## 1
Amino acid sequence: MHAARNFYSALAVFVLILHALFILWVAFGAFLTRSRPVLRCLHIGSLQWGILTELLPWWCPLTLLENWFEGKAGVEPYQGGFLLHYLDKLVYPDISPTALTVAGVIVCLLNLAFYGRQMWVARFR
C-alpha cells in the first residue's frame, strides 16, 4: 500500500513539473520559435488554449491528472486551477484570482501580438 502511494505521489510530482513547464512554454515559447514554423504553430495553439482555459470554465487535463494522482496517493487534491493554487501562493499571496487570470491572458495576448507583428513585417518584405 505504501509503495502504491509513493508511486502515485511521484506521478503527481511529475505532472506538476510537466504542468509548470507547459506554463513556461506558454509564457516564453516565442523565444524558442524563431525560424521553426512547427514550434510556432504549436506555441500559437498553446497560447489559444491558455486563454480559453483562463477565461472559460474549462478544466485543464493536467490539473485533473495531478489531482487524481494526489487522491490516489492519499493527499487531499487542491481545489481550483494550477496557477491559483501554486503561483498565487508563492509569488503573489495577496492578488485576487481575477487579477491573476487577467495577467495570464495579457501574457498570452502579448505573445500573439508578437506573432502578429512578425507576420505583418514578413508580409511587406
## 2
Amino acid sequence: MVENGKSNKNWLRVRRVIDVPLREVSGICLRRSQSGRMFLIAVGDRVAKIAWFSQPRSDEGRIDWHTSNIAKLSGSMLPKQDSQIEAVCADGLGRVLLLQETPPRVELIDPEALKVVASIDLTVDVRGEIARAWSDPKGSRGEGMVLLPGGHLLVAKEKKPAAFIEFGPPLSRSRGLVRGGALAGGERWPIKKGHHRFVALAIWLPDKTLAKTCADFSDLEIGPDDCVYLLSDKSCTIARLDDLPAGGGTAALLDAWRLGDLDGKPEGLAFTAQGRAIVGLDTRKPRRNLVLLEPAVAQLRGRGQA
C-alpha cells in the first residue's frame, strides 16, 4: 500500500516469455466469455492485425496463435500500414474494440462476421490543456482503455499531460469507475451500429504520488479482483488505482509494482485468472514480446477482505 506519500514498489520477475506473431505489440486484453473461457488478444501499431489464443489451463500450457488482417474487414477505416492502434478491449459477445491514437477514434469489430459494427470519433470539447493537447495533430492521445456499462469508454491519455478521460454520447452523464464498476465479463457493450461521435464526459488528472510513480500511461486493464490497473512504459511500473468518482477529479494510487529487466517497451497489460500480470512488449521483431510475471498482484481475496 501507499505509506507516507510514497508507494511501496515491489519487484515483479519474468516467469514465462512468449512469441507474439506481431511487430511492435501496442496493446493486449483478455476476453472472458459467458462460458468462462478466456482468450488473450494482442494488437500492434505497425500493421492492422490482431492475434489471439485461448488461454491454456495452466501458465505453462501450449499456446496456439491465430491472426486476422483487420484492414480487410468490411467498413474498416484503418490503414494497412502504420495503423496507430494503441489499445484493445473485448466484450462478452467476442466483439473487439480497437483504439486508434491518430486520428482519435475506435472501431468495434465482429471477428466472426468479418465486419466493423461501429466506428466512434473521440472528441474533447471542453476548454483547457487536455482539449488543446487532444486536438494537437502531434499530441499524445489514447494508449489504453476500459469498457464501461451504458456504452461509455474510459481512455488513458499517455502524456503531456497524462490523464484519464471518460467518453460517451453527447449529453450523457459521467459514470466514473469504482471497483467492480467496469463492464462485467460476458456482457455485451451496448452501442448501435454505424458511425458515432463520443465526447469527453469527465477527466481525472493524477495526484502527485501517481504522477511520480507513473511518468506516462501506457495501458489500462481490469484485474480479476475487479480493480483497475495502469501500466507505465517510462516508469516500467504497474499501478493499482483508487476509484475514479463520477464527474472527474483526481486519480490516486493504491499500490505499485516495478517490472524487472524487459527486452522491449511495456505497452500492453492483462492478467491471468490467478492475478498474474501479462505484459506485451513493443519490439522490432515478433519474438519474445509477451511476458508472464510473478508473483500475482490482482488476486481474488477471501470473503470479507478488502
